[in-house]
Design a protein that fits this description.
single chain; 279 residues; alpha+beta; Immunoglobulin-like; eight-stranded mixed beta sheet; 27% strand
Length: 279
C-alpha cells in the first residue's frame, strides 16, 4: 500500500505551506456573508409569519361572517351604527344642555329684572294713588254747639242737648256716612283716660253703614241730639256744688267712604261743662 510522505523542508514544502495559508485566508470571509444572509432570511421569515398571522385573522373573521347567520351580521352592523350615532348624540346633547343652561340663566336674570321693574311700578302706582287720594278725597269735620243747658229729669237723669254740624272740606263726595257718639259722665274728673283713648275705645265697636247719608264738597249737614246719663254718686271737691255744676265728655267717630275706593274716619271728643237747669 503506498504511503504519502509530507515534506516539511525544501522549496516544495514551503510552497505547499504558502498555498495552504492562502487557502485559509481566502476561506475566512465566507462566514460573515453566510451570517448576514441568515439574518435576512430570518427577517423575511418573521415578516412572512406576521403577514400570515394577519391573513389568518382576517380569514377567521371572514369565515365567521360567512358562517354566521344573516341576523347576527345585521345585529352586529346595527350595533356598530348605533354606537357611532350614540356618541354623536351624546356630543350634541352636551352642547344642547350647555345652551339650555345658559338660556335658563338669562331667563332667570330677565325674570328678576322684570320683578324689580314690576315692584317699582307697583310702588309708583301706590304712591300716585296715595297722592291722588290725599288731594281729591273727602274730609269730614264736625262742630258741636250746645242746644240747651244740662237738665235733670224727675228720676235724676241728666240730659244734654247738642247741635252737630258735619262739613265736607274735600273735593269729592263723602258717601255712606255713619257716626256713633257716647257721653261719658266725669263730673269731678274721675276719668283718668285721655280723650284720644276714649275715642279709640269707642271706635273699636263702631260699624260701617253703606246706606248712610252723603255730603258733597262744601256741603253741610246739621243734626240735633240728646244724651241721657246718670250721675255716679261721687261728691265734688272744693267749692263745686253737685246740684249746680256737671262735667261730661262727648266722644265719637264718623266713618265714610270715598267715591274712588277707600274709607276715612274722623274722631272727635268734646268736653261739656254746664250749670244744671232743673226741669
Amino acid at each position: 500500500m503506498p504511503r504519502t510522505v509530507v515534506c516539511t523542508d525544501g522549496p516544495q514544502a514551503k510552497q505547499q505551506q504558502k498555498g495552504s495559508n492562502n487557502a485559509e485566508e481566502k476561506s475566512e470571509p465566507v462566514l460573515p456573508a453566510r451570517t448576514a444572509a441568515s439574518s435576512a432570511e430570518a427577517g423575511q421569515k418573521s415578516s412572512s409569519a406576521e403577514q400570515s398571522k394577519d391573513r389568518n385573522a382576517i380569514d377567521v373573521f371572514l369565515a365567521w361572517i360567512l358562517d354566521a347567520k344573516s341576523t347576527d351580521v345585521a345585529i352586529m352592523i346595527f350595533t356598530g351604527i348605533l354606537a357611532w350615532r350614540t356618541h354623536g348624540l351624546f356630543v350634541e346633547t352636551g352642547a344642547l344642555r350647555a345652551a339650555a343652561t345658559e338660556q335658563s340663566r338669562l331667563l332667570t336674570r330677565s325674570i328678576d329684572e322684570t320683578a324689580k321693574t314690576a315692584d317699582a311700578a307697583l310702588e309708583a302706582n301706590i304712591l300716585a294713588r296715595d297722592i291722588f287720594s290725599a288731594e281729591n278725597r273727602p274730609w269730614i269735620s264736625i262742630e258741636l254747639t250746645p242746644a240747651d243747658d244740662f237738665r235733670v229729669d224727675a228720676n235724676g237723669a241728666l240730659i244734654a242737648s247738642v247741635n252737630l254740624i258735619f262739613k265736607n272740606h274735600g273735593k269729592t263726595p263723602a258717601t255712606g256716612i255713619f257716626f256713633k257718639m257716647k257721653i261719658i259722665n266725669d263730673e269731678i274728673g274721675l276719668i283718668d283716660k285721655t280723650h284720644n283713648e276714649m275715642v279709640n275705645d269707642l271706635s273699636k265697636y263702631t260699624g260701617r253703614n253703606n246706606n248712610g247719608f252723603s255730603i258733597f264738597p262744601g256741603g253741610i249737614l246739621e243734626e240735633y241730639r240728646e244724651f241721657v246719663f246718670f250721675r255716679s254718686g261721687a261728691k265734688p271737691s272744693g267749692n263745686l256744688d253737685w246740684d249746680e255744676y256737671i262735667k261730661a265728655h262727648l266722644v265719637g267717630c264718623i266713618d265714610y267712604a270715598f267715591p274712588f275706593g277707600g274709607q276715612g274716619r274722623t274722631k272727635f271728643c268734646f268736653s261739656l261743662a254746664k250749670k244744671l237747669k232743673a226741669i
